[in-house]
Amino acid sequence: AQTVTQSQPEMSVQEAETVTLSCTYDTSESDYYLFWYKQPPSRQMILVIRQEAYKQQNATENRFSVNFQKAAKSFSLKISDSQLGDAAMYFCAYRRRGRDDKIIFGKGTRLHILP
Amino acid sequence: EAGVTQFPSHSVIEKGQTVTLRCDPISGHDNLYWYRRVMGKEIKFLLHFVKESKQDESGMPNNRFLAERTGGTYSTLKVQPAELEDSGVYFCASSQEWRTGFTGELFFGEGSRLTVL
Predict the structure, then answer these.
(1) Among A9, A44, B34, B46, which has the highest number of CB atoms less than 10 A from its own CB?
(2) pLDDT, tens digit, for every residue of A32-63?
């Protein structure tokens, strides 16, 4: 069975600094998606960034980038120039490629931004 | 375009009572998922509808949970009778997967927080 592990329950970073959130996963599949979702307090969960396993190039979205190491089954999220609005719960997630299949989540990392 | 909406946002009930949670997916989304997060733990899959059919209900914890999606539009999740361990946040998500360019993403609602006393 596929699993997703986030080993950092909480992290803090100074505003404008860079922080990296860790995620590892386990799967026997070769083609899948990986996601980072963000959930601000009392708000809905939104997609931050997505990576397709067959793509070697790491995904980037503005200040957010990932380090995808397929062989190591590692998928970390780097947030550059941290802003107060980045404070949220971050969930790493896995989904087998295809349709009609569920997303599997990690336990989440709560990120605090220090002014 | 309206997003996924869930109601109620917070419900407090006593053990043994019944609660019904509702989810309205994004219009046109055939796929609807229910997830639950118990405090401090991972978000766990409960079940998945494709239109009005249950595609996968392997995550439903027991027969006190009943999910329906009549007509393939909104969905309800009923807990009867509620137990203390049912407390948590229930998330609904939707997607339209049978279309060109599907990216694997699910769109989530804000969640319904259930507290069972």
Answers:
(1) B34
(2) 999 999 999 878 899 999 999 999 899 999 99
Residue B43 burial (CB < 10 Å; 0-12/13-18/19+)?
buried
Looking at the complex, report in whole angstroms how far the Cα of residue A61 sits from the nearest Cα belonging to chain B: 15
User: Residue A3: which of A75, A54, A52, A67 has the closest Cα?
Assistant: A75
A83/A99 Cα distance (integer angstroms)? 35
What residue type is A61 in one-letter code?
E
pLDDT, residue B1, reads 66
Count each helix (H run) and each strand (E run) in chain A, helices first. Answer: 0, 12
Among chain A residues, CA nearest to B95: A100
- Strand residue runs (E) in A6-115: 10-14, 19-21, 24-26, 32-39, 46-52, 60-61, 64-69, 74-79, 88-96, 104-105, 109-114
| Interchain contact, A102 vs B48, CB within 8 Å | yes
Taking the Cβ of residue A64 and every Cβ of chain B, the question of whether any pair is shorter than 8 Å is answered with no
Establish if B54 touches chain A: CB-CB under 8 angstroms.
no
CA distances from residue A25 to A4, A29, A72, B30, B64 in whole angstroms, order as listed: 4, 11, 9, 28, 31
Model confidence over B65-106: pLDDT tens digits? 999 998 889 999 999 999 999 999 999 999 987 776 677 889
Q: Which of residues 71-100 of A touch B (CB under 8 A)?
A: 91, 95, 97, 99-100
Residue A102, chain B, CB below 8 Å: the answer is yes
